[in-house]
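Q: Hi! First time doing this. I have a protein sequence and I read that you can turn it into a structure. Is that right? Here it is:
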Amino acid sequence: MKRFIQGQDRSQSTLFPESLEEYIDEDNAVRIVDAYVDELDLFALDLLH
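A: Yes, that's right. Below is the predicted 3D structure, encoded as structure tokens:
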């Protein structure tokens, strides 16, 4: 059994013509969280095997 749910690629197109990236403004605070999480070493944190 998998421990984590794999998400969809952020650049993947949806049923709509826009991609998910286009729904989030460039200055939205969620981009800071996204950048922070991308920098985490998930192997060192033992979140990925």
